[in-house]
Specification:
Blueprint: H1 11-28, H2 31-38, H3 42-56, E1 61-64, E2 67-70, H4 72-99, E3 105-110, H5 112-129, E4 134-139, H6 142-150, E5 156-158, E6 171-185, E7 205-209, H7 217-227, E8 233-238, H8 241-251, E9 255-258, E10 269-273, E11 280-287, H9 294-310
Parallel strand pairs: 3-4, 3-5, 7-8
Antiparallel strand pairs: 1-2, 5-11, 6-9, 6-10, 6-11
Length: 311
Amino acid sequence: MAVAVMPDAHTLGGMMERIRALLTVIEEGSVNRAAVRLRITQPALSRQMQALENELGGKLLERESSGVKPTGLGHALVKSMRPLVGSYDAALAELRRQARGERSELRVGYLFSAAQSMLTPALAKLRKSQPEVKLKLHDMSPREQLDGLRAGELDLALIGQEGVTAASEFHSTKLCSLHVCVAVADDDPIAAQKNIALKELKGRDFIGVDEDQVPGRNRWATALCKSAGFKPRFAVVVDGISNVLSQVVSESAVTLLPGYFEKLQHPGVTFVPVSDEKARWDFIVLWQKGRASAATRALVDALKQVAVTLR
């Protein structure tokens, strides 16, 4: 009966060690001196060179009375493989740093609308505690943030309510639960009110958001309205929050938003607080599973501190 042979898990590492050993032999011009430098026996090093030549199908070294010199194939290997060995070593070192929870770079996805109230002050705190961290900030829609996390292109996403749809895939925490406001045109009668109950929006046209770009946003708004006794009618569905606000003006419609929008300004739009106590919007942050870097932990902590001021 044939026995299945398991692939060698160290094939890549073994090949890289043999290439690295060859580079050392060529630098030293001697197998003996290279063996001393590599702290292995000369016969073991000679076997590595022979195995590498067998793998490549040609001689890599010429033995001379003064030592060894690379053949044409050996020179070609040095030219093509020396940069590869350097990249391999650098990548391996970076992966080991990440495994220890160390990372010199932090890739953050965020909602532009949340930057001023939440992210900017949190980053100011991070710079004081982790000044050496290189930040890469990406203004993204909720869908783009989720895709970035799933592809390993982001370390952390400041995503808001929409993060509920993917909370089980990543580490997550609710930073705070904010009150809700309604966006209306400046000339809308509601704009003159200090606050409004959700039930007063019954019969009004709502502006919705493309669920593919902002997953769960329309369902969240629908659930709030149903708690007030009606189902919202989405007259127009657009692909982003900035377009939502433009449509609020042009369509004389309304939309529900997290309360931090009240601090923002948009031409022709007024943000009126919703008085219903149960009308809340959760601010959620997601980050990759596994051992989080010190920078990631520091930013999450900073976001929590800032969130306290928003409650």
